[in-house]
Amino acid sequence: MVRRIDVSGSGGVRLAAWEFADPPKHPCREGTGGPGAVLLLHGLMGRAAHWAETARWLSGRHRAVALDQRGHGRSERPADGPYTRDAYIADAQAAIESLDLAPAVLIGHAMGALTAWQLAARRPDLVRALVICDMRASALGAATQREWGEWFRSWPVPFATLADVRKWFAEGDPTLERPRPPRGDYYAEIMAERADGWRPAFSRRQMLQARETYAHDAHWEELALVQCPTLVVRGPDGELGRAEAQEMVRVLPRGTYAEIQDAGHLVHYDQPEGWRQAVEGFLESVLRT
Fold it and tell me: Which helix (H) or strand (E) covers residue 198, if one does?
């Protein structure tokens, strides 16, 4: 079953939340949401559907909801935004409250992980536990914004077919050091068919706006304010280095660490079984009755 739930986000922006399986008949806690409920937050350019496989195995024991964040997926893309940290955090809060998920486990990838820990720092009453997947606490820097702009311009859009999308992002992208077939599948999910071929389903200008609001700043202080149990997950070929990840765990009052072998930035796509084992083990430990 796939079920869409409409949510009103910050400023009345229309957001689409998704359940990819039937909620468990016997949740691990009482209530509609309860401490066993999970909200999944994708990264920049992502969409809720990227969490479909994760949400399905989570749904055996949890109510798992994935959110299309503003500017992404089937959620609204307001021309003038805002695409700020405050807006994304407020949207996630609205989803938790309107869907009665609190206190929820937040699972976030990249930008979604930053949103998750910033919300956990500001509203600890809403968050039971946290999974941070491949997101740095250090500033990414102005140079990376320029690099992202150049990268967007390098995309050979429109793509004639989805097979072309998969091939370019898995093999042809000049930023790749080696072929990564799961990356092709990931990017195929964020394309939409137009009259002239396949193009991004989002505005690249808006994506750069969203990234601008966090790329220049470090986020260590907010990380240190997260009081709930937190798992920091990375792959050896991802964007979060081992030393920084271990420092994040040290800064977190209740942090733990997991490294998924042979994974890159898209940990849950590159190594879905390793990802599942790490997350299930963590949830088992923190949600034990």
Answer: strand 197-200
> For 239-278, b where at least 16 C-beta lie within 10 A, e where not — what string?
ebeeeebebbbeebeebbbbbbeebbbbbbbbbbebbbeb
| Element of type H or E holding 281 | helix 272-286
Q: Which of 65, 75, 73, 100 lies closest to 12, judged by CA?
A: 75
The three-class DSSP label of residue 213 is helix
* Closest by CA position to 48, among listed 24, 64, 59: 64
Q: How far is CA 227 from CA 58, 126, 198, 244, 254, in A?
A: 23, 12, 43, 19, 7
Residue type, 208: L
User: Helix (H, G, I), strand (E, B), or coil: what is residue 128?
Assistant: strand
Closest CA to 233 of 92, 63, 59, 109: 109
Structure tokens belonging to residue 243: 């030393």
Cα separation, 215 vs 218, in Å, equals 8
Rg, C-alpha atoms of the chain: 18
> pLDDT tens digit string along 229-251?
999 999 999 999 999 999 999 99
Cβ atoms < 10 Å from Cβ of 61: 17
Predicted confidence (pLDDT) per residue in 26-50, tens digit: 544 434 444 489 999 999 999 999 9
Q: How far apart are CA 119 and CA 47, in angstroms?
A: 19
> At CA 182, angle to CA 68 and CA 44, rounded to 5?
30
Is residue 204 within 8 A of residue 152, CB to CB? The reply is yes
